[in-house]
Design goal:
- A 5-stranded antiparallel β-sheet has the order 4-6-7-3-5. A two-stranded antiparallel ribbon has the order 1-2.
- The chain has about 400 residues and is mainly alpha-helical.
- It is built from 18 helices and 7 strands.
- The chain has helices spanning about 5-20, 20-45, 50-55, 65-70, 80-85, 90-100, 105-115, 120-130, 140-150, 155-170, 195-200, 215-230, 260-265, 300-310, 310-325, 345-355, 370-380, 395-400; strands spanning about 140, 180, 240, 260, 270, 280-285, 295-300.
- A hairpin with an 8-residue loop joins strand 6 and strand 7.
- The chain binds calcium ion (CA).
- Calcium ion binds next to loops.
Length: about 400
């Protein structure tokens, strides 16, 4: 064989494998089977019959749609106005009030047993699935196995896959029947498999936990979960407040906690002008749309809500929705019209400029976290603007002018 022929042969081989994708696909498939095998071993080590994994993993392939959804990065930050506006709609409040009336006796019993007010259970139902309107139609085992074996969060999703197998083993359902969101959240309250296993309750007593079709099971499981992650009878999750004129804006931050009575002493009132509850519970004040928008006090139950979902705007929406489902007032103060989402690139640019001013020393990660907000506050102070840490278009523009 001449060198020339060799080259042709290599080229032909390369074209063939690129066209069919055969070699990489086989390697990927082998890797996926190995990964499933190790999940099966772990499940068996935890006492789940091997036959359960065999049935669930039979002919299972990774779900490319799940991989793609997992790789999506949010391009913009979310504003308070837009997020809460989408989450707490007149329709969702009205339907929540209907559901509250419809399930009154069940919810009342759960409130007495678990200490979670009815309007919160209904609010979570509204936020998670719009009262059961969309439960998700992905195969949960396939989703969590894909996330365990193909993405970088292997440990978390391997465990979720083991727990999904446990549900199949103990709850009399097939892998085909177990449907959920692309990331494996199931039923009316969108429970992950591990949450289902730890907190699921068979409230209607038919021998199975059914978070898809049984509202007694779904509500009782949500109440049990909320109690488990720290929800306690007492103050709500949050309240809208009025701040006095000379309120020190740098104390409006989740990192600052004071007993409720200390905020009262500083002149903070409820939005309707009434005094705050008399309490020594630790609480924070936040201004999610900056000083021109509404202010909220966050009570201890706000942290419990954030243990359900790590997003501050999600937790605020739960509190606002629950209050209105129970017949309470809407948020009185509107966010400013010019509050805008910031692109990832804009936040990176802000962080870079703040770093050049010596105000920011953390990663330029494009995320608007507490350290970035704190740097924004220092910049606002420096140029004589109210130091609320909220990057308005004006603040962003002044920063660009300050650091060229
Ligand atoms: Ca049941």
């Amino acid at each position: 064989m001449t060198p020339f022929n060799k080259i042709v042969l290599f080229a032909a081989t390369a074209v063939l494998s690129a066209a069919s994708g055969l070699v990489p696909a086989q390697a990927q498939e082998a890797e996926f089977r190995d990964c499933l095998q190790s999940i099966k071993s772990e499940a068996m080590r935890q006492g789940i019959a091997g036959s359960v994994a065999d049935r669930a993993f039979h002919n299972l392939t990774p779900d490319q749609k799940v991989v793609d959804l997992d790789a999506r990065q949010p391009e913009f930050t979310q504003t308070y106005g837009k997020y809460v506006g989408n989450a707490v709609t007149p329709d969702r409040i009205a339907r929540g009030q209907q559901k509250l009336a419809q399930y009154r006796s069940l919810l009342g019993a759960l409130e007495r047993e678990y200490g979670v007010p009815a309007q919160y259970l209904v609010a979570f139902w509204g936020m998670e699935t719009n009262y059961g309107s969309y439960l998700g139609d992905f195969q949960v085992v396939r989703s969590v196995a894909t996330l365990a074996c193909v993405t970088k969060r292997a440990a978390f999703f391997s465990n979720e896959t083991v727990q999904a197998l446990r549900i199949l083993a103990t709850n009399g359902m097939t892998s085909q029947q177990m449907r959920g969101s692309w990331a494996g959240a199931m039923g009316n309250m969108q429970f992950m498999p591990s949450t289902f296993v730890k907190y699921g309750v068979d409230r209607d007593g038919n021998g199975r936990i059914d978070l898809w079709n049984s509202m007694p099971d779904a509500f009782a499981s949500a109440a049990n979960f909320l109690r488990g992650i720290g929800f306690r009878p007492g103050l709500p999750a949050s309240d809208e407040v009025l701040l006095p004129q000379a309120f020190p804006l740098e104390t409006a931050d989740t990192t600052v906690e004071k007993p409720v009575r200390d905020w009262t002493a500083m002149g903070v009132k409820r939005a309707n002008g009434q005094p705050l509850p008399v309490s020594d519970d630790l609480s924070s004040i936040i201004l999610p749309a900056g000083w021109r928008g509404p202010a909220f006090i966050l009570y201890p139950n706000f942290k419990a809500v954030m243990n359900w979902n790590r997003s501050t705007l999600y937790a605020l929406s739960i509190g606002i929705l629950a209050q209105q489902i129970a017949g309470g007032p809407a948020v009185m103060r509107q966010p400013p019209d010019d509050d805008q989402p910031l692109s990832h690139d804009t936040v990176v640019d802000m962080q870079t400029r703040l770093a050049r001013l010596g105000l920011y020393t953390d990663e330029t990660d494009g995320l608007l976290g507490p350290k970035t907000r704190s740097a924004v506050r220092m910049f606002q102070k420096k140029i004589g603007l109210p130091a609320d840490g909220h990057p308005t278009p004006e603040v962003v523009q002044r920063l660009v002018q300050a650091v060229r």
